[in-house]
Design brief:
CATH superfamily: Methenyltetrahydromethanopterin Cyclohydrolase, Chain A, domain 2
Strand content: 15-25%
CATH class: Alpha Beta
Number of helices: 14
Strand order of the largest sheet: 1-2-8-7-6-5
CATH architecture: 2-Layer Sandwich
Number of domains: 1
Order of helices and strands: HHHEEHEEHEEHHEHEHHEHEHHEEH
Radius of gyration: 18 Å
CATH topology: Methenyltetrahydromethanopterin Cyclohydrolase, Chain A, domain 2
Shape: globular
């Protein structure tokens, strides 16, 4: 079976070989771990964001950034084509590990999760565990990790710290905006996982989502980036078996649909638990192709009004 901590290495090599052009910066910690700053103390770039997404998907995805219109206004969009969707999305990109050390806290994704089995239930579901002496973890954080944090992560992954690479990007950065849009297929896979759908039936997956404008406030950035997927994200799934479950996946089925995510968050008293959990893990629309019967079905729709309000255009 494919080793996702090895398939990701060409992506990491490209990032390290082109730091200046990508406007990112790498450094080595005292224990030998490599940290690649993609937006904490650097500007980042669109290409760096695309590579960050490809790294989160273990090198099992191709990305393209294009310009499309939302309500007649041009914005950048990220397009994805993913191989081995259950492994790439749930085994790698899913933000399934909360890093907590005395000096650091971050949401972690990336192929290194498959070494540490975070969380174990996901890897049981997809029937996958990686074995490699190298590991890559992506951290959503406003600060860079220290050697103690890298050592903790390496220990959990069962590798030497010198073989660990940590990518870091805050949500309120260009790369941070791109990486949330890059989760458009993964949120569908997560919903299917939660619903108990047989993920081995999914053959192919593609998706696209707008890239949110960079916001200075972290909570506002959290809202706009999620709104890109909720109100304008598109996913196409090829599966061996259609299920009525797919009809429930678009965000319009949530009772909280129709307002920007940040607005809902404030109305809930800044409590995530006060927002319908289905909204954050839903695309605007999905097309499903049952390749066994040839049937194609489409559900959901884009909502430019809410998204442009979220962006601050209207």
């Amino acid at each position: 079976m494919v080793s996702i901590n090895k398939t990701v290495q060409p992506v990491i090599e490209e990032m390290l070989a082109n730091e200046e052009a990508l406007e990112i910066r790498a450094h080595t910690l005292g224990n030998g771990a490599t940290v690649i700053d993609c937006g904490v103390d650097v500007r980042g770039s669109y290409r760096a964001g695309a590579l960050y997404v490809e790294a989160c998907l273990a090198g099992l995805a191709t990305t393209e950034i294009v310009v499309e219109s939302i309500g007649g206004i041009p914005f950048p969009f990220l397009h994805l084509t993913i191989q081995h969707p259950p492994i790439a999305c749930l085994g790698s990109q899913k933000a399934g590990w909360i890093i907590k050390t005395p000096s650091y806290r971050a949401m972690a994704s990336g192929p290194g999760r498959a070494l540490s089995l975070q969380p174990k239930s996901t890897y049981r579901t997809i029937g996958y565990q990686d074995e490699a002496d190298v590991g890559v973890i992506a951290l959503e954080a406003d600060t860079l990790p220290d050697a103690d944090t890298a050592g903790y992560i390496a220990e959990k992954c069962g590798i030497d710290p010198s073989n660990l690479t940590l990518l870091v990007a805050p949500i309120r950065s260009l790369v941070g905006s791109i990486q949330i849009s890059g989760r458009i297929v993964t949120i569908v896979m997560h919903s299917l996982e939660e619903a108990g759908y047989d993920l081995s039936l999914i053959r192919h997956a593609t998706g696209s989502s707008p890239i949110a404008p960079v916001k200075k406030d972290m909570m506002e950035a959290m809202g706009t980036t999620n709104d890109c997927n909720i109100y304008y994200g598109s996913v196409c799934i090829t599966t061996e078996r259609y299920d009525a479950l797919f009809e429930t996946l678009p965000s319009e089925n949530s009772p909280d649909y129709g307002k920007p995510f940040f607005t809902l968050f404030k109305e809930a008293g800044n409590d995530f638990l006060g927002i319908d959990s289905r909204l954050a893990f839903s695309p605007a629309e999905i097309t499903v192709n049952d390749c066994t019967t040839g049937v194609v079905r489409h559900f959901g729709a884009h909502n430019s009004e809410v998204l442009l309000t979220s962006f601050g255009v209207r």
